[in-house]
Amino acid sequence: MHSMAVHGGAGTLAAADLTPENDRAFRAGLERALRAGFAILDSGGASLDAVVAAVQALEDDVLFNAGRGAVLAANGHHELDASVMDGRDLRAGAVSGLRHVRSPIELARLVMERSPHVMLAGTGAEEFALEQGLVPVPNTHFATERRRNELDRMLHGEIEAGRESLMGTVGAVARDAHGDLAAATSTGGMTGKKWGRVGDSPIIGAGTYAANDCCAVSATGHGEYFIRAAAAHEIASLMRYRGLGVVEAAEDVVMRQLASLGGYGGVIVVDRDGRIAMPFNSAGMLRGAIDSSGRLFTALLRD
Asked: Which residues of 3-20 are buried (b: 16+ CB within 10 A; e: fewer)?
């Protein structure tokens, strides 16, 4: 069975603030990403291609904190991170601190496929992007009035850094018809973060992980805690070594281990049989899933 899931961030969003217009817009964005990736799976394509396509759709949607529409660091710049992992052979690619790359997930894949490295950061990553023929964009390409307002409110003490509505990340996980798994994650980080801060999204084993023998994982939330818990790899380890099912393993990490540290957020996980888990311990997590039967599901809060 081929199947995939996507997420668009986890955090706090009061039900009263979720207007019918906002609800429709978030769900439409999630559905576009699901359909972009699932069209590849449905035609017999690879899970790696599917997760990259889904994440690129979310990077191009200003509603989500990745690519265009990403949050601003305290210095007023966008600094973007991403990673991708192929469950067939544990190849992975990651980038961090990007300021001029339109699609961070595209560059993460290029690092995986066209370099001997797993992670490139900052100016080195951007130089590599130029070598690969990617056309740079100005940092203002990613800016929106909504994100500028969020940073202004944080700098004036009206909101805590990183705690605005649905701060987070976008990501996708998939199992293709061949049984191969893949995961991809992309983010703008936290509003008002210290420039140079790196969260879990580009860290293999923290925010992203995929291995055909167990599962593919993409995380969203307060990244420092996901790094400390090695959350994505911990889910895989519980499945590998303790024989837990995908739902049980994902819930143990999110609802028990992360919560005990004080961390909040969630994960999307698909196992080697195509089963999906999407637990979160925050007030909301933008998420959706689709499988080979054609059933499509999207949700925002605990609905």
From this structure: bbbbbbbbbebeeeebee
Lowest-pLDDT range, 61-75, 83-97, 118-132?
A: 61-75
Please report, for the domain that includes residue 71, its CATH number. Answer: 3.60.20.30
Which residue in 19, 169, 185, 208 is the catalytic one? Answer: 169
Q: Give the three-state DSSP class for 244.
A: coil
What pTM was computed for the model?
0.95
Listed in sequence order, the residues at least 6 apart from 115 whose beta carbon sits closer than 8 Å to its beta carbon are 93, 128
Judge whether 169 counts as a catalytic residue.
Answer: yes
Please give the torsion angle defined by the CA atoms of residues 281, 285, 289 and 295, in that order, rounded to the nearest 10 degrees: 100
Q: What total of structural domains would you count in the chain?
A: 1
Which amino acid is present at 73? A
Q: How far is CA 146 from the centre of its chain?
A: 20
Between 47-59 and 20-42, two packed helices, what is the crossing angle to 10 degrees? 150
